[in-house]
Design brief:
Elements lengths: L1 E2 L8 E6 L5 E7 L5 E4 L2 H8 L2
Antiparallel strand pairs: 1-4, 2-3, 3-4
Length: about 50
């Protein structure tokens, strides 16, 4: 889980462009929430900062 400064205005999927021209899901943001759900490498980075 990643804290956001402001609540997300809508549901959203954050997609990362990889170096090999593929894409990966990195975050899921939920409307009205001040947090996002990190996925994959982004989740590991969020855990490392705790």
């Amino acid at each position: 889980m990643v804290n956001l400064e402001t609540a997300s205005s809508n549901d959203a999927a954050v997609v990362k462009n990889n170096g090999d021209a593929t894409k990966s899901l990195s975050e899921v943001r939920l409307s009205g929430k001040k947090f996002s759900l990190a996925v994959g490498e982004e989740a590991a980075k969020a855990d490392a900062t705790r």
